[in-house]
Specification:
Pfam families: Aminotran_1_2. Its cofactor is pyridoxal 5'-phosphate. The chain is of the alpha/beta class. It folds into two domains: 135 residues, Aspartate Aminotransferase, domain 1 (Alpha-Beta Complex), CATH 3.90.1150.10; 242 residues, Aspartate Aminotransferase, domain 2 (3-Layer(aba) Sandwich), CATH 3.40.640.10. The chain contains 15 helices and twelve strands. The strands form three sheets. It has a seven-stranded mixed beta sheet with strand order 2-8-7-6-5-3-4, with helices on both faces. Strands 9-12-11 form a three-stranded antiparallel beta sheet. Helix 3 runs antiparallel to helix 12, helix 4 runs parallel beside helix 12 and helix 5 packs across helix 11. The chain is globular, with a radius of gyration of 21 Å. It starts with 7 loop residues before the first helix and ends in a 5-residue tail after the last helix. The structure holds pyridoxal-5'-phosphate. Pyridoxal-5'-phosphate binds next to helix 5.
Amino acid sequence: MPDFSASPLVEQLEENLFSALEKLAAQIASSERTLIDLSSGSPHQPTPPAVVAALQVAAVQPGNHDYPSFWGKPALREAIAHFYQRQYGVRLDPEREIAVFHGAHIAVGGLPRALLHPGQYLISTDPCYPVYRSAALQAQARFYGIPLDAARQFQPDFSCVPEEVARNAGLLMLNYPHNPTGALATSALFDDALAFVKHWHIPLVHDFAYAAIGSHAGEQPLSLLSRPEASEWGVEIYTLSKTFLMAGWRFGFAAGNASMIAAFKKLHTHSYSTVFGAVQDAAIAALQLPAQEMAQLVAVYHQRRRRVLDALDAMHWPVEPHQGTFFLWLPVPAGFSAQQLTEHLLYQAQVLVAPGHGFGPGGEGYIRLSLTADDDNLAEALKRIAALKLFS
Ligand SMILES: Cc1ncc(COP(=O)(O)O)c(C=O)c1O
């Protein structure tokens, strides 16, 4: 059988951090040790029954068995507009300001390809969700990560961006609540970002993947689009994966500046095609769930965060308690690199975490721990980690 070489583009891509971790987990699991995986970002909770029921009804409707429209059903785009109005007080034009697709990953990769010119910079943060770096590469662009610092609560300082980078920038891409640091956006952060993109005349993309998961119950993370003029300069990506426990369903949307949405939609018709009509109907059911019910879906992460923070405190692990997303970003103890601590936890405690440097060089010195494992596994993992006496 001939062994074909991959394209230069694929050769340049690093292995996806999470596919590498999945392989590692499988290796350890097959050597018959009970591995507890705290590296993953899948909610591991059932999708709300009303959404599953909507899919069941929609799946048997013949209208959903044809090719769907490239633009998504009008009722779905209306539901998205209502959802943004209800949650964030933001008005959107369902025709021109909304695009739908198979999960945020599609837009995270697709928006840079739709907007960047070869050689331009995609500016984001360091550390960041790893796909932003490969998205720049796939767009033939260069990546610049604004270094994030715990002393600034991981808020980017736009005045640090070198002038050469800013002058040649084609896109600013942010993500708050921030994966992996858990930092939450302040209105000052978004206003600074908007001032930066206006000054350099570049578009802004905000990946709002953890829109529903602040640092405690009742804290609603800030939407970029709720800031003045934001929908003129930017687009926000939203996913149903985390908010509505629908990771396997692959549904997301982007909303904001009409020219950015149009460029992305054009690329989308060529690269990714359409979303199954029944998934669109189920997405409408999810977006129409009462806000209170939505909050209950993610309440479990707040309870777990509290318990994990208490357990880490008992180990004398110094952790910033005000973190959103369903991860915790933990500094490694003295004497360990992120990789060394990850291996120590893996081989001595059979607990898999994500090493910070997998999110960029700025993640060195940290590990990311997920709150998506069930309560028993989380408790057992913490017991095993405590036994290692990392801080005594
Ligand atoms: C910051 C961030 N953006 C995007 C995604 C992808 O989300 P989706 O499931 O909608 O593809 C994730 C998933 O973990 C994420 O953490």
